[in-house]
Design a protein that fits this description.
Layout lengths: L6 H28 L10 H55 L6 H22 L20 E3 L4 E3 L7 E5 L2 E4 L4 H6 L1 E2 L5 E5 L8 E7 L2 H4 L4 E7 L2 E6 L4 E6 L5 E4 L2 E6 L7 E6 L2 E2 L1 H13 L5 H61 L3 H26 L3 H4 L2
Antiparallel strand pairs: 1-2, 3-4, 5-14, 6-13, 7-12, 8-9, 8-13, 9-10, 11-12
Helix pairs in contact: 1-8, 2-3, 2-7, 3-6, 6-7
């Protein structure tokens, strides 16, 4: 049985073949122009889905990079601010040590107090710095407020205790800055653990030079008071008034009881007292104000001079502890900056890996594509010649 092939069928087959060759050629051209072999999900559904997933991962890395840049900028500004604040405290402590001398005159102390006031203003400016983008560094999570407000007698904090945790990697967030309340307002006094203070009503000229813990187990954080029952006799009582120890006072000697030790100079009067307690917190502005006030106050009597000297001696310790506090916060800032650097390295490595995987899924191999283009062109030319030859086969041509 002979199958009859009509002219129309041959023309249809030739046309279909020609269109297929043109479609393959156009496809290869489009791939070479776009650089991608995944022009639609239908090309390779699994590869297309994987590429989409990797695109999302790359976009997340880019967002983490932007976040890291913002956090790094604010942390570097914080570190610089803490460095500047530390310089202020170093100078203030130098002035306190300078003021702790009986050889100074009242004008000398007034000049020191004036410089301390200036340092306080400088510290206030540091505490109110912004990040260059309209946000204050030390306002916590509150925007649009000046965090530290000078009311004249004291400095109040208008920010909050929060901090902005910014994602810099999957499952890793870093605080962009510390709240100002932690940095400037809640600073330990004394040596950071214990603080000694002279009684406000003391009438003698005894000066508390230092206090410290000798036995933490025996002390336990309790408040203890040395009460002078006579200029040369004292008793140590706890917060409930129970007598823990008694003794004879000798100037420039230590008094030890209840796990703590005090060193006194001068001659306390009967009824004078000196208390040691767990170190409370105070803002750095109040510490500077307290020292300046003491230096500016008149000191005509021995008791007034002792009162001033007690404040100056305590301020030296308070400012030293404040310096350590700033260094501690700065160390934490440095740790976060180190985390940013380490995370940046990890992000860079992951970005390279994702780019390589995406390239294998989506990018065109131009050598292969050029070969395919050449094959499509050859096939298209052959199809065109075949179609021309077939179109020339006519019975009427044979009858001529």
């Amino acid at each position: 049985m002979t199958m009859r092939i009509s002219t129309a069928l041959m023309h249809s087959q030739n046309l279909q073949g020609l269109l297929q060759r043109q479609q393959g050629l156009a496809r290869t051209q489009q791939e070479m122009i776009s650089g991608s072999k995944l022009l639609s999900a239908a090309d390779d559904p699994a590869a297309f889905a994987n590429a989409q997933r990797l695109d999302h991962a790359v976009a997340a890395l880019e967002q983490y990079e932007r976040n890291s840049g913002v956090v790094g900028h604010r942390l570097r500004l914080q570190e610089q601010s803490l460095d500047d604040a530390g310089d202020v405290l170093i100078r203030a402590r130098e002035l306190a040590i300078q003021a702790n001398s009986g050889a100074l005159s009242d004008p000398d102390r007034a000049a020191i107090a004036a410089e301390l006031r200036s340092l306080r203003e400088g510290m206030l400016g540091i505490a109110n710095r912004d990040d260059g983008a309209g946000r204050r560094l030390f306002a916590g999570t509150r925007d649009g407020v000046v965090p530290f407000v000078d009311t004249g007698d004291a400095v109040s904090y208008a920010g909050n205790d929060g901090h902005n945790d910014i994602d810099i990697a999957a499952d890793l967030a870093v605080a962009d800055a510390d709240p100002g309340s932690d940095i400037f307002m809640r600073v330990r006094t004394g040596d950071g653990e214990i603080r000694g203070r002279a009684g406000a009503g003391n009438t003698g000229n005894g000066v508390l030079q230092s206090s410290g813990v000798t036995d933490y187990a025996a002390w336990g954080g309790a408040s203890l008071t040395v009460q002078f029952t006579a200029p040369d006799a004292y008793q140590v009582v706890d917060a409930g008034g129970a007598v823990l120890a008694t003794g004879t006072y000798v100037a420039d000697s230590a008094i030890a009881a209840g796990g703590v030790q005090l060193e006194l100079t001068g001659s306390p009067a009967a009824g004078d007292s000196f208390t040691v307690e767990r170190a409370p917190t105070r803002d750095v502005f109040a510490t500077l104000d307290r020292l300046a006030d003491a230096l500016e106050a008149p000191a005509a009597t021995a008791a007034e001079r002792a009162r001033r000297d007690n404040v100056v001696s305590a301020s030296i310790a308070d400012l030293g502890t404040a310096q350590n506090h700033m260094l501690g916060v700065r160390a934490g800032t440095g740790n976060r900056l180190a985390t940013l650097e380490a995370t940046a390295d990890a992000r860079s490595a992951e970005d390279v890996s994702l780019a390589a995987t995406l390239s294998s899924l989506r990018d065109v191999d131009y050598a292969e594509a050029a070969t395919q283009l050449s094959l499509h062109l050859t096939a298209l030319e052959a199809a065109q010649r075949t179609m021309v030859r077939v179109q020339g086969l006519s019975l009427f041509d044979a009858l001529r």
